[in-house]
Each structure stands twice: as structure tokens, then as C-alpha cells.
Design a protein that fits this description.
The structure holds two protein chains of two kinds.
Chain A lengths: L16 H11 L18 H24 L4 H17 L26 H25 L3 H20 L9
Helix pairs in contact in A: 2-3, 2-4, 3-5, 4-5
Chain B lengths: L2 H24 L6 H27 L20 H24 L3 H20 L13
Helix pairs in contact in B: 1-2, 1-3, 3-4
Classes of the chains: A mainly alpha, B mainly alpha.
Chain lengths: 173, 139
């Protein structure tokens, strides 16, 4: 039978003792031999977790921008925002940096805000598609089986939420 | 790789093939064209996956688990709503097996399981399912 869903893992300095114990138990034991002198330990997955967090935050920033430009879409996008928040919490993402901070030198200009609900929805779908692809890629590349399982499930959740997005208001009967 | 996870996946595929076959016999191809097409598509996909998983298990010199004689239907399949609900249950069961396989495999097998998990999640939505945060992982 499938094993339990969480905990996911990662920075051992950030997690509490019970979670840490569970993590440690699952991180190295499934399908990977114990590290030995001849065999270096499995590479840490922190870089992939950081990339997943960055991808989730990027997708969430698109949601925020679209909602700001088109408040009529707020209700339709709320489940996506809730999913991003849940995923970030599961990955133990640190607090986001201040979004009002001035952009760094060389930062690209943000895209123009969408003018219609149809354009806003399209922008969100493209962004979520990109997030899903990133999560799929990361799920295939991490060393930890439990982390792979969670990242793949997150990708599946994104796919479901894209499918559940209602058509833009102007196309609804 | 975990042979146990592969066998669990195969058991889920056996159930999916059998149940989608039953559902295909219950749905009207004239009045429920979209639902009939979705069930036919699901049946074909799961049959292909079943055969693929059987090959992988045999490649490992193991005996694939056999299909049950019959499987319990989770809902009354006399109505379109019941057919949809049953199909959702099938895809959820497969998604759990795929997610478990993702966590217990690597390389091409993990890639296959990830793809199957995402597909099952989408298929569940096509049968009227509700979007969840972590499909394939029990709440």
C-alpha cells in the first residue's frame, strides 16, 4: 500500500524534531543503499526544492498580477492561490522577500497587465503549465523518493486545477 | 526499484481495465457521447499500461499478480452520475498506485509513473472530479 503522504523533507535546520525524525527515516532508506566510504552519499535535494519554491512563487506572482488587473477573476483563481500556498507550506518555504523592493539591475520589465478576462485566464494557464512542467522535471531528478512523490503529486494537482478553471466570464452562458 | 510497488500498480491497472470495461457497457454511445468516449479512452490507456507493467515485472523474473475475477463497483452504475463517480474512483485508485511508484523508482520507470499520475489526475477531472492539492496522496 502507498506510504504516508508527508513529510516532505528538506532543510534539517528548519524542521522540528518529530518532522526531522520522520524525514531522516524516509530520506535515505527507500531504494537507496546506505552511504559507504566507497560510495558517496546521495546528493542533497535542496537545490531542487529551492527551484520548486521559486517556480511556485513565480506562478503565484502571475496570479496576483492578474487578479489586480482583473478583480472579476479573483474567485476563479482563489483555488489556485490556495494550492500554491499549501504546496509552499509543504516544502517549508521561507518567507517571501518584500515584493515592493526595487528590482535589481538588469531585471526584465514585467509583462503588460491583461486587459480582458480571456487574456488573464490565458496568462494564468500558461504560467501554471510552466509550473507543472517544472514540477514534473524536478520530480524526475531528485534523489529522495518521498520528495519525488510529493513533487509529482503537486504537478498532478496543478493539472487538475488548470482543468477546473472556469471559462472567462464573457464566455459563460 | 520496488517490485511491490510495480505489483500494486499492476493490481490497480487490472481493476481499471475491468471496471472501465463494465462502465463502457453501461453508457449510451448515442446520448452520452462524451462520457462514452472518455471511458473508451480510459479503458484503452489502462489496458496499455497493464500490459507494459506486466512486461516490466516479467523482465525482473517475477510473476505478475493476476487479475481478480471481478471487482467491486463503488457506485450504482445505472446512471451517468454513478458511472462518472465510479470512473473517478478508478482513476483515484490508479493515481495512488502511480504516486507510490514514483517514490519507489528512478529513471525511466519514475518518469513513466509521473506521467501516469498526471494523466490520471486529468482523467479524474474529465469524469467530473474535484481538483485537489495532492492527487494520489491520501488526505
Amino acid at each position: 500500500m502507498p506510504s504516508s503522504p508527508v513529510p516532505v523533507l528538506r532543510r534539517t535546520t528548519l524542521v522540528g524534531a518529530p518532522l526531522l525524525a520522520a524525514l531522516t527515516a524516509c530520506k535515505w532508506t527507500e531504494g537507496s543503499p546506505s552511504p559507504t566510504a566507497e560510495q558517496p552519499p546521495e546528493p542533497d535535494d535542496d537545490a531542487q526544492v529551492d527551484e520548486a519554491i521559486a517556480a511556485l512563487r513565480a506562478a503565484d506572482a502571475v496570479l496576483v498580477d492578474v487578479e489586480a488587473a482583473l478583480p472579476v477573476l479573483a474567485d476563479a483563481l482563489a483555488p489556485l492561490a490556495a494550492m500554491h500556498a499549501a504546496d509552499l507550506a509543504l516544502l517549508e518555504a521561507p518567507p517571501a522577500v518584500d515584493a515592493s523592493a526595487p528590482p535589481s539591475a538588469g531585471a526584465s520589465e514585467p509583462p503588460a497587465p491583461p486587459q480582458t478576462a480571456r487574456d488573464g485566464r490565458k496568462l494564468v494557464v500558461l504560467s501554471e503549465d510552466e509550473l507543472q512542467k517544472t514540477l514534473v522535471r524536478l520530480a524526475g531528478s531528485v534523489g529522495s523518493g518521498p520528495l519525488a512523490r510529493v513533487l509529482a503529486s503537486m504537478a498532478a494537482g496543478v493539472a487538475q486545477h488548470i482543468a477546473a478553471l472556469p471559462p472567462p466570464p464573457e464566455e459563460q452562458a | 526499484m520496488s517490485i511491490e510497488a510495480l505489483q500494486t500498480t499492476l493490481a490497480a491497472e487490472h481493476a481499471a481495465v475491468w471496471i472501465h470495461g463494465v462502465l463502457g457497457g453501461q453508457v449510451s454511445r448515442s446520448s452520452q457521447e462524451a462520457l462514452a468516449a472518455a471511458i473508451t479512452g480510459a479503458y484503452t490507456v489502462h489496458r496499455g499500461r497493464r500490459d507494459q507493467v506486466i512486461r516490466w515485472i516479467r523482465d525482473l523474473d517475477q510473476d505478475p499478480v493476476a487479475a481478480e475475477v471481478a471487482y467491486e463497483l463503488t457506485h450504482d452504475v445505472a446512471t451517468p452520475a454513478g458511472i462518472q463517480a465510479t470512473a473517478q474512483s478508478v482513476e483515484q485508485g490508479c493515481a495512488r498506485a502511480y504516486a507510490d511508484l514514483v517514490g519507489r523508482s528512478s529513471d525511466h520507470l519514475r518518469t513513466w509513473a509521473i506521467s501516469a499520475l498526471v494523466d490520471a489526475a486529468k482523467r479524474e477531472m474529465a469524469f467530473g472530479g474535484t481538483a485537489r492539492v495532492l492527487p494520489g496522496i491520501p488526505d
